[in-house]
Amino acid sequence: MTVRAAAKVNLVLSVGGPHPDGMHPLDTVYQAISLYDDVRASPAEEWEVGVTPVGGVDCSGVPLDEGNLAVRAGQLLAAHHGLDRAARLDIDKGIPVAGGLAGGSADAAAALVALDRLWHLRTPDDDLLGLAARLGSDVPFALLGGTAHGGGNGEQVTPLADAGDHWWVVVPDEGGLSTPAVYREYDRLHPDAPTTPPASHALLAALADGDHAALAAALHNDLEGPAVSLRPELGERLALVRAHHEGAVLLSGSGPTVLALSSTHEGATQTRRALLEAGVPVVHVATGPVAGAHVVELVG
Ligand SMILES: C[C@@](CO)(OP(=O)(O)O)[C@H](O)COP(=O)(O)OP(=O)(O)OC[C@H]1O[C@@H](n2ccc(N)nc2=O)[C@H](O)[C@@H]1O
Ligand SMILES: Nc1ncnc2c1ncn2[C@@H]1O[C@H](COP(=O)(O)OP(=O)(O)O)[C@@H](O)[C@H]1O
């Protein structure tokens, strides 16, 4: 049973001041893009994980034990049904690790769907979304895919109509960035941030109107400043991408992946070519929106 799940980008990511538990209220718009992890679930006596890189992704930071979010998803699903079961999970990883593209969340969502099928559980969608929210604030969106609004801490997802054909130039960075560290830096830089983040009216209107120029103008990420503050070279990377791209450029989530948006495939591939010629080692082109976690191969 193989399930595919996509990377996410945040078209807008507005962050409010933290709750007492340290989590930050968000107003975000997610989009699933065509960089994928495939998770294959098979019967096993104990929990086992294998990870295979796809397209040169550095998988050295991916835990191969119960720290892997896919295993935690499987354990939570089994517990939800009162089952004492384990499985083997093989991950083909095409989503850069710790890049702000939510690859771990994609694997967790894929594992929930794959194990639900493998074990014939027929878990209701609302229960799967509830389990996903307990695994991480990005995981419910990884189940849903498409384009969606994220409220609460990011886990309260509402699908949005998006007839657009968006093309993303995805520029991964060599190292990863820790999401909690970037949120802590946000708190240091914005000690008086209001608890309620501003709503993304302009971006929602641009999506509803299918207005690419307005969409590009409304892209925004409150974590870009904190990420650059923690890693100043990232500012140079953003400037390099801006110098080679005619449209909007922003950081992906908590970074350090940099994104450039184009309305056409040709525009995106042109930017990719220019960045490779400028010496950037790895540049992907992806499209969005694409589907959430879905079965791609049944057990033969
Ligand atoms: C920043 C975002 C933007 O979509 O994603 P990435 O760019 O990292 O993929 C998300 O908010 C990350 O979501 P996710 O990676 O699922 O975070 P979680 O596992 O829920 O939380 C990891 C840690 O990030 C911080 N965190 C996360 C979400 C949130 N709304 N407020 C927070 O302060 C907390 O320190 C938390 O312990
Ligand atoms: N299946 C997984 N894939 C990737 N990382 C994982 C996974 N399970 C746990 N992790 C841990 O989660 C961290 C963040 O991973 P990832 O989801 O790729 O990035 P981000 O949160 O920046 O979007 C990694 O550094 C790794 O330690």
From TrEMBL:
- Ranges of residues in domain GHMP kinase N-terminal: 68-146
Which transformation does this protein catalyse, written as a reaction? 4-CDP-2-C-methyl-D-erythritol + ATP = 4-CDP-2-C-methyl-D-erythritol 2-phosphate + ADP + H(+)
Q: Where do the GHMP kinase C-terminal domain residues begin and end?
A: 204-279
Enzyme Commission number(s) from the entry: 2.7.1.148
Instruction: Write out the pathway annotation from the protein's UniProt entry.
Output: Isoprenoid biosynthesis; isopentenyl diphosphate biosynthesis via DXP pathway; isopentenyl diphosphate from 1-deoxy-D-xylulose 5-phosphate: step 3/6
Q: Which UniProt keywords apply?
A: ATP-binding, Isoprene biosynthesis, Kinase, Nucleotide-binding, Transferase
Instruction: Write out the residues that bind ATP.
Output: P96, V97, A98, G99, G100, L101, A102, G103, G104, S105, A106
What Gene3D superfamilies does the annotation carry?
Answer: 3.30.230.10, GHMP kinase, C-terminal domain
Per the record, the domain of life is Bacteria
**Annotated GO biological process:** isopentenyl diphosphate biosynthetic process, methylerythritol 4-phosphate pathway; terpenoid biosynthetic process
Primary enzyme class: transferase
Provide the active-site residues from the annotation.
K8, D138
For the keyword Transferase, the answer is: yes
Q: Which GO terms describe its molecular function?
A: 4-(cytidine 5'-diphospho)-2-C-methyl-D-erythritol kinase activity; ATP binding
Question: So what family is this one in?
Answer: Belongs to the GHMP kinase family. IspE subfamily.
Q: Which PANTHER family match?
A: 4-DIPHOSPHOCYTIDYL-2-C-METHYL-D-ERYTHRITOL KINASE, CHLOROPLASTIC
Q: According to its UniProt entry, what is the function of this protein?
A: Catalyzes the phosphorylation of the position 2 hydroxy group of 4-diphosphocytidyl-2C-methyl-D-erythritol.
Q: Which HAMAP family match?
A: IspE (MF_00061)
Protein name as annotated:
4-diphosphocytidyl-2-C-methyl-D-erythritol kinase
- What is the protein's species of origin? Nocardioides aurantiacus
**Classification lineage:** Bacteria, Bacillati, Actinomycetota, Actinomycetes, Propionibacteriales
